[in-house]
Automatic annotation (TrEMBL):
Bilayer topology: Multi-pass membrane protein
Entries under CDD domains matching the protein: Nodulin-21_like_1
GO MF annotation terms: manganese ion transmembrane transporter activity
UniProt cross-references to InterPro entries, sorted A to Z: Ccc1_fam
Main location: membrane
Subcellular location field: Endomembrane system
Keywords of the record: Membrane, Transmembrane, Transmembrane helix
Residue ranges crossing the lipid bilayer per the database entry: 20-42, 48-66, 149-169, 175-198, 210-231
Pfam families according to UniProt: VIT1
GO cellular component entries: endomembrane system
GO terms classed as biological process: intracellular manganese ion homeostasis
Taxonomy of the source species: Bacteria, Pseudomonadati, Pseudomonadota, Betaproteobacteria, Neisseriales
UniProt protein name: Nodulin 21-related protein
Length: 232
């Protein structure tokens, strides 16, 4: 019976932008909501809350983009350096590199003859690609993309931070802490569910993890804000 219709769906190709997006949205929502809750606990006026929220949104998005770009660029530079070393070794010591690739396939369960045949075929097809994948673990899917990570992080941070900023604009300062707490926890739960769905992972652990950490962050910052408000 033909199985040509069967096609498994994998999500590893989403890792580069999904990680940055989840981190950005999570950070944007928690950090901005925590900041506003800390301020609200000190009982400032609504104008101060709004300006603080907008400043947190803009500065946070820019900071996340810059941080992602720099860190992922460093990763890309390291990958490029490893590929140059591997290319040099392939030119200078082709026999040694072929034996190395053969041994890798032997360790993965192939017999010596078959492993050598596979190594020779892949070397003839694209030696650098084969060694990059098997020795270093670099593939087209896993390659670092700084610009993609930076844009995903900045946009997701802004989206996450927008919710508490809008709430600070639409809600009175009396109810702001309660409203921020409830909506942030709900938002984190939705974010955890979406990220798990996009990554093909179980939803419950992702939701529980992100909600618990969010509650701790909100509780800590509101406590600090209340203490500061009393002291000042």
């Amino acid at each position: 019976m033909s199985q040509s219709w069967h096609k498994e769906q994998h999500f590893s190709n989403r890792n580069n932008w999904l990680r940055a997006s989840v981190l950005g949205a999570n950070d944007g929502l928690i950090s901005t909501a925590s900041l506003l809750m800390g301020l609200a606990a000190a009982e400032p006026n609504q104008h101060t809350l709004l300006i603080s929220g907008i400043a947190a949104l803009v500065s946070g998005a820019v900071s996340m983009a810059a941080g992602e770009y720099v860190s992922v660029s460093s990763q890309r530079d390291t990958e490029a350096a490893d590929l140059r070393k591997e290319q040099d070794s392939l030119i200078r010591y082709p026999e040694v590199e072929l034996e190395e690739l053969t041994n890798i396939y032997c360790q993965r369960g192939l017999n010596k003859t078959l492993a050598q045949q596979v190594a020779v075929a892949l070397t003839e097809h694209n030696a650098l690609e084969a060694h990059a994948r098997e020795e270093i673990g670099i593939t087209e899917v896993s390659k670092a993309n700084p610009l993609q990570a930076a844009l995903a992080s900045a946009l997701s941070f802004a989206c996450g931070a927008l919710l508490p900023v809008l709430l600070s604009l639409l809600s009175s300062t009396v109810w702001l802490m309660s409203i921020l707490s409830i909506t942030t926890i709900i938002g984190l739960g939705i974010l955890g569910c979406i990220s798990a769905h996009l990554g093909g992972a179980p939803k419950r652990p992702a939701v529980i993890r992100i909600v618990i950490l969010g509650i701790l962050a909100l509780a800590f910052t509101s406590m600090i804000g209340r203490i500061i408000g009393i002291i000042i």
